[in-house]
Predict the 3D structure of the following.
Amino acid sequence: MTASFEQTAEARWRDILTGNYAAVSAVLAGGIALHAVNITITATMLPSIVAEIGGQQLYAWNATLATLAAILSAALTGRLLRQTGPRLGFALSGLIFAGGSLLAALAANMPVMLLGRIIQGAGGGILFTLCYSMIVFVYPERLWPRAMALLSGTWGIMMLLGPAVGGIFAEFGSWRLGFGVMLPVTGLFVLMTMLLLPRRSKEQTQSEPVAFGQLALLAGSVLAVSLGGLAPAPAWAAVSVLLSVLMILALMRQERKGRVRLFPRGAMTPGTPLFLAIAVMALLIFCVNAEFFMPMYLQRLHAMGPLMAGYIAALVSIGWAGSEVYSARFTGRRMLRAVLAGPVLMLAACTALAVFTPMSGSAGPALTLLLSLALIALGIGIGIGWPHLNTFILQFTSEGERDLAASALSTIQMFAVAFGTAVAGLTGNLTGFKETGNPAAIANSAIWLFATFAAVALLAVLASRALTATQQE
């Protein structure tokens, strides 16, 4: 262990950015950049897209379906890597992503747009998973932390640049070009992969079984809620939510009793520290989906342009990244306090957004400042405890299942995004979000939407208290 630590300590940034590893580092960072910037420019351009092709009632589906496709495709990435090797695997994922981008650019209505987003999500999910999977194949172990930091840093930078790119296209009425520009960029990326990546990985592992049953239940639970958002009456929406809950309970039961699992043993057993850590993480990710809806509310209720609205919404990412870096050094009681403080801050932020977002009219400096502070607090609410929640999940997992725990982290995050946007879409549509020409109805939907996020944040507060109590005994 000491030798391994010393090797890691000697790793420098120039070791992966120059010399033999420079090319592959560029490819992996490029793959992460493609997926990340696509997420943020779509969120910023979506109000302009809806204004042109309609489909306000399907607004949330753009994130829900793309994320679901990413979850399902990510589950198959390991098999793809073993069957095709890195070079062809990356090229195929890039071509799938480009196909979805082309379809989105040409969409004349929202159903076609959603099909494009599904294909984009599938390509992006494979791309994202391949980038992280390749770290252990192309770098020596001492460079793994630097490589992980490179990909995380690239993601953070793109989450900040994306709103600017999307805002510029939307500001000048060229959202189709925003998707279209992805084609040459993706083409360049595919060319880089064909020239720079190895045909085969150094290691070929035996194919692991895929938990298709749990994946089907996971996808079904999200789709049930999404369909509930289109229901003609609240009673049907309630039925869809009940069906979704039953599917989640069935998934938990299958995880406890099945031989093939998505999550480490004990992850779906209520009351265990591992279950509580996963619950806090999922609930916080659920709440941070508020960022996805802010560009629409800021443009429709506060008369902001797409560029300004996109950048104010991106303050969530700034709060998340900054607080995560700051709190990563916490240990002991400070670490536990950070895990406790995050959900409380999230609750306060969601409550503030429920109060300030519906205040329609041209946002003056004071209101803009209050909204900005609430969004920064939303990001800090998840970021301040994020490194420690990830660490808890790995620590609470048996050593033989650490690999499963690592892959489960991305599954948890993507499921929480998909489920959160689905619930938000249902809540918004039932309370006025789909009435595009009625500012009062949209303002009413903002109250209910952020109140729902606040209620979920309260559950995160309770779960975090239970989690930290297990660590103080």
